[in-house]
Amino acid sequence: MNKKINILAISHSFLKKVNTEMYSVLKNKYNYDIRLISPQSYIEFKKKINPDFSAEDLDIDISFYKTIFNHLRLKIYKNLLSTIKKEKITHVFLDMDIISLQSIILIIFSYFLNYKICYFSNENNIIDEKHFFKKKIKVFFFKVTKFFFKSQIFRIFCYTKQIKENLDYCGFIKKTIIIPLGFDNKKFNRHSRLPKDKIFRISYFGKIERKKGVHTLLKALKLLSFDNWVFNLDLFEVNDLNYYRIIKPYLINLKKNKKLKIIKCDHNNINKFMKQTDLSIVPSEWNEQYGRVIQESAACGSIVIGSRVGAIPEILISEDFIFEQDNIVSLKNKIEDIFVNYNDLRIKFNEIENTINLTRSIDVQAKKISEIFY
Fold first, then answer.
1. What is the pTM (predicted TM-score) of this model?
2. Structural domain includes residue 261
């Protein structure tokens, strides 16, 4: 390994401690010089998102920078270039769109400050873009960026095959590499999982907003033909209050029938609830770019089913665990199938769980990234 490699990683996602863990592995296990940069805060759904930790909680250097603009495509970090020059950075890792304003600025200045750029890309909606002119504009900007700046783009890390296919379509095939988003298998595992009891425990872990499809799940639960189940709903992140008001009558009805348990899961306690769950459901109705909640739930011993959209089928693989998005009957039938054939499908899901443990941990993610520098 080249000991002169000095990495600066930049991401708004570093406001959550969980998203810094892979870099700790790169630093401590592979001996890279790494520092992280995050905005001081950002606005999401009209809510201000602040760090969920302090810098002293990490075993890796992190700085919180002031930014210009809030939109992710337009956000610019103040004094970033002076930091790169002062620290003699050799590689900048960007968790942002390749054609964002900050990205273009960093690419231009990389010619003068002698660093290369790596991207973590979520771009999975080019090939399937339904709006003709929007698709053409996206492809145009990506191809122009590739034509002028390909020498400065070292690698593009794609969390899924779908993301790679979208960027390859824009001409980046020699730059892209699939590296799944890792999960912490020291925290998310079967250790201390309780034996299955007579109550069938169904859970939804994730944000409360329309595109996550919680309304479809609630309508499907109402149609179930068996009775000995309870539903755990994670209300830690209610991003859309108007949407919550829409689904609230379903929750009241479930509560009245003693079918609902409200839980609030941050990343410190979510594994406890996953270990109590028989069936985790991911009912997304938009192009999910990766499925960390699938990986974490599966590693904790829960069967997981998800909608046929985005990266979900890439992780769950088998049709036994996939239902049609925005389809109440398809989801209802899948839940009942899991319940009736639980033991057989549990054995089949073990193969998916084993694959997830072997290929999608933070250690695997860090190892694959480190290998590109050898």
1. 0.92
2. yes
